[in-house]
């Protein structure tokens, strides 16, 4: 495992989710280190939670690159998928919400338990907080170990801004970035949205990003 200062981060436009593109910080290090210990886990049922763009998909892709497994999107889970998991030890179900077919999810969890497989479910809301109608399914959710990706700290926000600006071939003075870090909302989606808006406003005004543009987007 690499040093905690190694640069790594998830971005919506990066479909490769490379190990070296992920940024370890206090916000996500505990989740990364837990996944890295497989198969020496306390439980076989894992639920990774965090807001949109917090790095859940990136973490599961890194996990699958190291450990064989199969991934499904909860919104597209089908009966046939229950047959596909037979040859895999690790199953990942992403984007779980109350919209999922509860009977299908219950069957999936039963297979995981019976065959002593491992499952990682990602969701914005902890699985124990999802109001499932099937009581047996509700009971199953109590078997999950919950791992939450916290709101980004200053170090991570700085890294996200640097990477996003770099992807857009934009250079910004570090003092301006530090100014943003101290004032922007601690939300992954808000940070991405902010970068998009300052870039758009800069293009509209046909001028480089400066403190005035930053303050305008921040609403100051």
Mean pLDDT: 90
| Secondary-structure element series | HEHEHEHEHEHHHH
What is the terminal separation in angstroms? 42 Å
Strand content: 5-15%
Helix content: 40-55%
Assembly level: single chain
Rounded to an integer in angstroms, the radius of gyration calculated over CA atoms is 20 Å
> Which strand order does the major sheet show?
2-3-4-1-5
| Biggest beta sheet attributes | 5 strands, parallel
Low-confidence residue ranges: 1-17
User: Per the principal axes of the C-alpha atoms, what is the gross shape?
Assistant: elongated
Number of helical segments with 4 or more residues: 9
Global structural class: alpha/beta
What is the number of beta strands? 5
Fold and architecture overview:
It contains 9 helices and 5 strands, in the order H-E-H-E-H-E-H-E-H-E-H-H-H-H. It has helices at 29-35, 56-66, 81-84, 102-114, 135-141, 154-167, 174-183, 188-205, 211-218, and strands at residues 45-49, 70-73, 90-96, 118-123, 145-148. It has a 5-stranded parallel beta sheet with strand order 2-3-4-1-5, sandwiched between helices. Helix 6 runs parallel beside helix 8 (188-205) and helix 8 packs across helix 9 (211-218). The longest helix is centred in the C-terminal third of the chain and has 18 residues, at 188-205. It is elongated, with a radius of gyration of 20 Å. Residues 1-17 have low confidence and may be disordered.
How would you describe this structure in keywords?
disordered N terminus; 220 residues; five-stranded parallel beta sheet; alpha/beta; 5 strands; elongated
């Amino acid at each position: 495992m690499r040093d905690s200062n190694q640069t790594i981060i998830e971005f919506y436009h990066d479909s490769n989710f490379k190990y070296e593109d992920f940024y370890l910080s206090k916000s996500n290090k505990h989740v990364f280190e837990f996944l890295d210990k497989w198969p020496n886990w306390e439980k076989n049922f894992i639920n990774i939670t965090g807001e949109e763009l917090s790095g859940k998909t990136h973490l599961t892709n890194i996990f699958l690159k190291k450990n064989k497994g199969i991934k499904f999107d909860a919104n597209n889970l089908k009966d046939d998928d229950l047959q596909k998991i037979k040859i895999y030890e690790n199953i990942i179900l992403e984007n779980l919400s109350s919209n999922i077919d509860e009977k299908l999810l219950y069957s999936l969890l039963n297979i995981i338990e019976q065959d002593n497989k491992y499952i990682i479910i990602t969701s914005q809301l902890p699985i124990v907080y999802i109001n499932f109608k099937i009581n047996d399914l509700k009971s199953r959710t109590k078997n999950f170990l919950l791992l939450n990706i916290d709101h980004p700290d200053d170090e991570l926000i700085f890294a996200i801004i640097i990477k996003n600006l770099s992807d857009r071939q934009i250079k910004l003075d570090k003092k301006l970035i530090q100014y943003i870090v101290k004032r922007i909302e601690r939300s992954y989606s808000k940070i991405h949205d902010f970068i998009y808006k300052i870039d758009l406003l800069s293009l509209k005004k046909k001028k480089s990003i400066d403190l005035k543009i930053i303050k305008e987007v921040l609403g100051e």
